[in-house]
Structure prediction request, 299 residues.
Amino acid sequence: MRRFFQLLLLLSLVPLLVSCGPSDARVFHGYLYFVQGPYLMRFSLRDESISMVTHLGNRTVREISPFGEDRLLLSETASVNRRNVARISWLDLKTGQSEALYSGVRARFIAAAGTIVYDDGGTLYAVPLAGDTGVDTVVMSHERNRLSTMVTVADDRLLFEADEAGQPTVYLYRAVSGELVKLDALGALCTLEGAVWVDGRDALACRQRDGGMNGAGQDYVFAGLDGRVIGRPTLPEGDAFLALAYIRDQDVIVFRERRASLLGGKRSDALWAHDVAGGENHPLSAGQNLGSSVVYTAY
Prediction:
């Protein structure tokens, strides 16, 4: 009988012992904005709730990117006078107000230079928001629709990838000085699709162009702009991962994991927060698809 009561006491203490041990839980804050059909949506990092921000009307949004604290830049296709027009617009997150800026297919705001860099499909332009010279600075010209992904670097630089004679080439544009540099070593190592700049490592988190040596979904590296591998994020065992955003104030990378169905049904998605300094992976959501273009804000 005495041994029975000892066993009961031990069982009652197990939850307390577990709760006092190391915890994988970490509380995050802020929101991830993403597009779902005709709606701009918001995902809460704190409680996984989703809410609608605004209806986007008769336009198809391809990409969103930050434009100051409370606005987004939209790369969209809109119907204007019964014609589909590719353009760059801004949208106010608080009021839902929106306005078209340029005819173009993609754009980024470079905060330190106060400049929008946009691609009209054949030429890359840099436009300072202060003043109006009436002439947009040409960064470079390229073959029609041969410029792809853009990635901002530490608020003052821009990486972009162009297809030159069938060869993917990565460039760095220093928006403050106007200098344009070809990064051959980085272009040989990484693709910019699914890449994010990580201030905590002063490096680009990117997928190796050759797929790496670790199998599907485990081919991410931290790379310097000189093309050197300076580390690897240790991701969970799983299928293909895609970096969606780096959250500077929490030093985490948000990854989407695309999971294949074991029974031949639909694929599912999971969201992870990878702690850059500590290397831990924290689950954010299972089954929520935010697409491939998201923007983090603290509110």
